[in-house]
Amino acid sequence: xxxxxxxxxxxxxxxxxxxxxxxxxxxxxxxxxxxxxxxxxxxxxxxxxxxxxxxxxxxxxxxxxxxxxxxxxxxxxxxxxxxxxxxxxxxxxxxxxxxxxxxxxxxxxxxxxxxxxxxxxxxxxxxxxxxxxxxxxxxxxxxxxxxxxxxxxxxxxxxxxxxxxxxxxxxxxxxxxxxxxxxxxx
Length: 186
Ligand SMILES: Nc1ncnc2c1ncn2[C@@H]1O[C@H](COP(=O)(O)OP(=O)(O)O)[C@@H](O)[C@H]1O
Ligand SMILES: O=C(O)C1=C[C@@H](OP(=O)(O)O)[C@@H](O)[C@H](O)C1
Ligand SMILES: [Mg+2]
Prior knowledge:
Largest sheet: 5 strands, parallel
CATH architecture: 3-Layer(aba) Sandwich
CATH topology: Rossmann fold
Number of helices: 7
Structural class: alpha/beta
Bound molecules: adenosine-5'-diphosphate, shikimate-3-phosphate, magnesium ion
């Protein structure tokens, strides 16, 4: 089975469901944000503070390139990973892309007590989520091989739903060596 890439908005469940899928499939799980945090030795909000969103996105592209080359990996991306065309191409070519879809209100409920998402530290997080979802939804849909609605469905049930979808998906992938040379490590 090719690598599995989880995409979707903040709060869609990429990290949680990705971990469950990897366990069920006995595959390696990686989360791009956790890789960055381990590498930088600080949490995501600190990367935003020190280097701005542009700095974070640069690191994100590099980590995504590295992680998406790992054979059989289940990879949770960050919600904004689809913004760069280069990232979308990597994901689309190298594995099966699963879009975890949810409504803005649901995303808000799942993220409202978490301080680790700098883009949602605003006076109106629901408004911000609504706007980001409007901008990003076409990008998630553009690269999705599978679309999964996550509203009011438990994580365990979603994992159980996604497994047979992956087994029958038959996504043709191109080995990374055929697309881009590895980016230099940051
Ligand atoms: N289907 C779901 N139902 C209920 N809670 C969920 C669901 N998916 C995720 N969550 C919860 O929402 C929060 C955000 O999930 P997370 O996996 O961090 O999302 P993402 O990585 O997409 O931002 C976590 O507390 C997680 O337990
Ligand atoms: O949507 C985004 O732009 C972001 C989503 C976050 O990941 P999650 O989607 O896992 O919350 C993290 O990468 C960063 O805070 C930026
Ligand atoms: Mg996450």
